[in-house]
Amino acid sequence: MTDTGPVDGPVDEPVDGPARRALRAPRAAGLAGVLFALLLAAAVVLMRLGLPQGAGAATPAGFTDPARRDAVRAALGLVPLAGICFLWFVGVVRAHVGAAEDKFLATVFLGSGLVFVATMFGAAAAADAVLATAHPPGAAPPDPAAWDFGRRFAYTLMTGYAMRMAAVFTCSLSVMGHRFGVLPRWLTVLGVLAALTLLFASSNVPWAELVFPAWALVVSAHILVVGGRRARQGTAVA
Predict the structure, then answer these.
(1) What does the alpha-carbon distance between residue 42 and residue 55 come to, in Å, rounded to a whole number?
(2) Spatial CB neighbours of 147, under 8 Å, sequence gap ≥ 6
(3) How many helices (H) and strands (E) does the chain have?
(4) Which of 7, 19, 64, 84 has the fewest Cβ atoms within 10 Å of its own Cβ atom?
(5) Contacts of 27 by beta carbon, 8 Å cutoff, 6+ apart
(6) What is the reported pLDDT for 100?
(7) What pLDDT is attached to residue 235?
């Protein structure tokens, strides 16, 4: 008589295993990604308008418009919210990749995401220092050299370091999505192109940092659409 009891040892992974379940959390990962993209894009636009680069912004005299100071304050208020949504997105993605994740890619993905948030917060802190020293209450205007240093420091952190970490994050997530078969080829190619743009053009081309939230918005929208379609199919089958 054949023994039909439980069999010890590894069991073949079902077709819909952890690798296929990666990024299948549309309401969590998708919404967090959309919120992050919108918040970061708004913060970048407000910061660019309120604290522009160029010769005209090299002295605090160009920062006398209250509307520009209000734009910087609004951007600084959005940055922490964007960071929270970004970390939520990273956590949901890692949770749904699970045991199927490639350790090397997962380390690069997580590390670049954490460094991106840290440098983004550092750039916001530098911009806040510029805002505080521009026209402190009851004080004389700051030294133009100190003003220019703070302004350049904020932009260097954001465009020179944060965006390069964003490039690594974008590339690693695109490779993971392609390897697990959860991102279409066109979205993988788009991610690689976005990573190259952020890596080589972010510190030289104004507004190039908007490529990152634009890519995040497209990926998040794809996750929401695909996840909703699968949910409707599962309901129909049930």
Answers:
(1) 24
(2) 58, 59, 60, 63, 130, 133, 134
(3) 8, 0
(4) 7
(5) 224, 227
(6) 61
(7) 59
Q: Are 104 and 171 in contact (CB under 8 A)?
A: no
SS3 call for 1: coil
User: From CA 173, how far away is CA 198, in angstroms rounded?
Assistant: 15
Residue type, 200: F
Burial class for 194, CB neighbours closer than 10 Å (0-12, 13-18, 19+): buried
Q: What is the pTM of this model?
A: 0.80
Residue type, position 52, single letter:
P
The C-alpha atoms of residue 168 and residue 184 are separated, in whole angstroms, by: 19
Any idea which residue has 């976005």 for tokens? 194
In the chain (238 residues long), the average pLDDT of successive 10-residue segments reads 49 45 61 94 91 59 72 92 94 70 85 96 89 64 71 89 96 88 88 95 90 94 78 60
Cβ-contact 32, 89 below 8 angstroms: yes
pLDDT score at 63: 63
Cα separation, 186 vs 178, in Å, equals 10
